[in-house]
Design goal:
Layout: E1 10-12, E2 16-20, H1 26-32, H2 36-42, H3 51-62, E3 68-74, E4 80-90, E5 95-102, H4 112-127, E6 132-138, H5 142-150, E7 154-165, E8 168-178, H6 179-191, H7 193-196, H8 223-230
Length: 231
């Protein structure tokens, strides 16, 4: 089990606040993951998740004892608009897989997903001292890719024509950000007020779980031991 002290109860940004999930958030998950557009952006299958799949997903990935998942709230209204998480935490090698879903369509395009991603990356590479954060995203999800680039992710590979969508084959991109990338970007933001104040672009993706949903994650075995190596 991952000690809760390793993951915060809250992360505050300018646009969003990230909080631990509560059982009442299941209703939003049921709505989001039954949406065909989110399925198109986030799933290998072209159909939405079934109700029982959503409930299992929520129990394991949002509320489970080893879940490293945060609810994304619009800061100005406190409205729940999405979810973001890490999975496949590898403490020995200082790496994790990132996921985000902005589930409310009217919240797309406002920078919420980008800021949530930056908050999670900052926590993972800063407070937790991880070395590498990875994600996967379909190449047609250009909005998500732009958002990830804004947070320092770079394309490091692709699975060619791995998904059939909208009547044609598309690649799946592998992206990652390293702690060295993150330190350089942070230094640039701190030294240039224009960069620090730039409005982020929103995520409505898969890259993860954004409408970015990534690959399934296993337990964070050895996290405590491995993180101490990287700090």
């Amino acid at each position: 089990m991952v000690p809760r002290s390793w993951f915060p109860e809250i992360l505050d940004g300018r646009l969003v606040t990230l909080r631990r999930h509560v059982p009442e958030n299941l209703a939003a998950f049921r709505r989001w993951y039954a949406d065909p557009e989110i399925a198109r952006l986030a799933r290998y299958q072209q159909t939405p998740m079934r109700p029982e799949e959503i409930e299992r997903f929520f129990a394991a990935r949002a509320m489970g004892p080893e879940a490293l998942s945060m609810a994304v709230h619009e800061r100005s209204t406190n409205r729940l608009i999405g979810t973001c998480a890490f999975s496949q935490l590898d403490g020995d090698n200082g790496s994790a897989l990132y996921h985000i879903t902005i589930g409310e369509p009217d919240a797309w395009g406002h920078g919420y997903g980008t800021e949530a991603t930056q908050l999670m990356v900052d926590h993972a590479l800063g407070a937790l001292g991880l070395h590498r954060i990875a994600l996967f995203v379909f190449e047609f999800n250009e909005r998500a890719i732009r958002a990830y680039r804004r947070c320092g992710f770079v394309v490091e590979g692709r699975s060619r024509e791995s998904v059939w969508r909208d009547g044609r084959w598309w690649d799946e991109l592998a992206m990652s950000v390293l702690d060295s990338d993150w330190r350089r970007a942070r230094a640039a933001r701190e030294s240039d007020p224009a960069v620090a104040g730039a409005a982020p672009e929103a995520v409505g993706d898969r890259g993860s779980e954004t409408v970015a949903v990534g690959r399934g994650g296993g337990p964070a075995n050895g996290l405590l031991r491995g993180l101490r190596r990287w700090q």
